Amino acid sequence: MRPNQKFCSMYSNFISSTISQEQIREITAAIDRINAQLPTLVSLSNEELSSLPKVSMKNIDFIHEVLDFADTYPDLVPSHIDVQEIRKDLSLIESISKILKPMKQLVKKLEDSALLAGSEAYIPSLAIYNSVKAGTTRSRSHHMTIH
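Given the sequence above, the corresponding structure tokens read:
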């Protein structure tokens, strides 16, 4: 069952799960192994990101076309351009895309599950808080405080 708009206003338990410490160790070790397999990946600063052109599939198709043109007319390729390096970059883009798709799907599931679990913990916590608050207002003999 998936949450809907009514979920926001009422308590439901759509996710009920835990992740053991052993699972966390195994998962983080697997992530470490993946990172070790990709030592040449980079992290760019926000400034670096904003200075680079955004490349879409349309741009990738353009690069393929230009490489075909470079093969057909190598004498028209400027001498300072390394066509093999363009091919290498294009191959890297295509390889990363094959890895990135399932990783993005996993990250989305992690983020969505964390959001849902957080909401499911928060909504009943508010109900408990309001109940305690109402109870202490009615009966000052219990000196309970929740912050």
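The mean pLDDT is 89. Try to locate this feature in the token string yourself.
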